[in-house]
UniProtKB/TrEMBL annotation:
Phylogenetic placement of the source organism: Bacteria, Bacillati, Actinomycetota, Coriobacteriia, Coriobacteriales
Keyword Protein transport set for record: no
Protein name from the UniProt record: 4-phosphoerythronate dehydrogenase
Species: Olsenella profusa F0195
One GO MF term: 4-phosphoerythronate dehydrogenase activity
Residues of the D-isomer specific 2-hydroxyacid dehydrogenase NAD-binding domain: 104-281
Residue ranges of every copy of the D-isomer specific 2-hydroxyacid dehydrogenase catalytic domain listed in the record: 5-311
CDD domains reported in the protein's UniProt record: PGDH_4
Transmembrane stretches, start-end: none
Gene: pdxB_2
Length: 328
C-alpha cells in the first residue's frame, strides 16, 4: 500500500477519502527539511502549511505526487518537481467565493472599526462608540488589484452593496474589465490612488513579492484601507508598519503574513486598526470539504498512474521521468 505524508491533518472529508486506500503519516509539520525522513519513505505528500524544495525532491526518489489543497504553489519548487517527473496537484475554482466573502468581511469590519470597538467595549470603555470612527462603504471605491476569479467575485460583491470598483490587472485588456461596468486602470499606482479600500488578489511570484512597498504605499490615500487575502509576501510588512505608525494609512485587514504560522510578536498585531485572521479565508466548511476531497482524489489518481487534470505542471506528463515514476 502506498504511503502519503499529510503535513497537517485535513478537514475530515479529505482524510476519509484517503482512509483505507493509503498509509497515512501526519507529522504536523510541513517543512521538508524537518520531515525529510518521512518524505523519503513517501509515495505522496499533501502539503497544507510549509514547503518542499529542490533538495527534498532530489532526496525522495519514491515521491510520485505533491498535492496542495488550494491553488497557491509558491511553497513548492514546481520546476524541480517537473524535472523529476512529479505532478503537483492543485484544487482550482473551489475557494473563490469563500475568499471573496472574507475580503468583503474585512472591508466591512475595517469600515466599522470593529476590532478597536470590541476590544475597548470589553475593557469597559463604552464611550468608544462616540469616537465616530465607523464609515459607510456605499459610494466608496474599492480598488481590486488582480482581476482573476477571486478578484471578479470581490468586485461583484462590493458592487452589490453600492461600492464603486476600480480594477487593475496587467494580464488583462481594458475591455475585459470595463465589460463588467467597472473602471479600469492600466497603472497600479493610479488604481491604488483611487481606492478607499485596496484589496489584493495576485499570486506570489518574483514579480509580485513585496509589490506593495514604500513606493506603492505613497500612492495610498491616508484614509484608505489595505486588504490582503492573497499571499503575505506581496506586501512589504516593514513598509506597512512604517505607514501605519506615521498615520498615513487608515488600517489594514490581513488574512496572510509573510511568515506562517503567524508570530504574535509581529508588530502588526499591536495596531488597533489592523485586523489579522489566521489564513482562514478559504477555510469555510463548504469550500474546505470540496477542496480536501479534490486534493485526496487527485493524490490517489496520480498514485494510480492516471493523468489527473488539475495540476499546475501539465508538461510533466510528457517527461520520461513521469513515465518512470508512474510505472512503479
Amino acid at each position: 500500500m502506498d504511503t502519503v505524508v499529510v503535513s497537517h491533518a485535513m478537514y475530515k472529508p479529505g482524510m476519509d477519502a484517503l482512509e483505507g486506500k493509503v498509509n497515512i503519516v501526519i507529522p504536523n509539520n510541513g517543512d521538508s527539511d524537518e520531515i525529510l525522513d518521512h518524505l523519503k519513505k513517501a509515495d505522496g505528500f499533501i502539503l497544507r502549511i510549509g514547503k518542499i524544495d529542490r533538495k527534498a525532491i532530489e532526496a525522495c526518489p519514491g515521491l510520485r505526487v505533491i498535492t496542495r489543497p488550494g491553488v497557491g504553489v509558491d511553497n513548492v519548487d514546481v520546476k524541480a518537481a517537473t524535472e523529476y517527473g512529479i505532478p503537483v496537484v492543485i484544487c482550482p475554482a473551489v475557494n473563490f467565493h469563500a475568499v471573496a466573502e472574507h475580503s468583503l468581511a474585512l472591508i466591512l469590519a475595517l469600515s466599522k472599526n470593529l476590532k478597536e470597538s470590541v476590544d475597548e467595549n470589553e475593557r469597559g470603555n463604552f464611550s468608544i462608540r462616540s469616537k465616530y470612527a465607523a464609515t459607510e462603504v456605499a459610494g466608496r471605491t474599492v480598488s481590486v488589484l488582480g482581476f482573476g476569479k477571486i478578484g471578479r467575485e470581490v468586485a461583484r460583491l462590493c458592487s452589490a452593496i453600492g461600492m464603486k470598483v476600480c480594477a487593475y490587472d496587467p494580464l488583462l485588456e481594458k475591455e475585459q474589465i470595463t465589460e463588467y461596468g467597472y473602471e479600469y486602470e492600466a497603472d497600479m499606482a493610479a488604481a491604488i490612488s483611487k481606492g478607499d479600500y485596496v484589496t489584493l488578489h495576485m499570486p506570489s511570484t518574483p514579480e509580485t513579492r513585496k509589490m506593495i512597498n514604500d513606493g506603492m504605499f505613497a500612492a495610498f490615500k491616508s484614509t484608505a484601507f489595505l486588504v490582503n487575502c492573497a499571499r503575505g509576501d506581496i506586501v512589504d510588512e516593514s513598509a506597512l508598519v512604517r505607514v501605519l505608525e506615521a498615520g498615513k494609512l487608515a488600517g489594514a485587514g490581513l488574512d496572510v503574513l509573510s511568515a506562517e504560522p503567524m508570530d504574535p510578536k509581529n508588530p502588526l498585531f499591536s495596531f488597533p486598526n489592523v485586523i489579522i485572521t489566521p489564513h482562514m479565508a478559504a477555510q469555510t466548511q463548504e469550500t474546505t470539504g470540496k477542496t480536501v476531497t479534490m486534493a485526496a482524489e487527485g493524490t490517489l489518481a496520480v498514485l494510480r498512474g492516471e493523468e489527473w487534470s488539475n495540476i499546475c505542471n501539465p508538461e510533466v506528463y510528457k517527461t520520461d521521468a513521469w513515465k518512470h515514476r508512474a510505472m512503479r
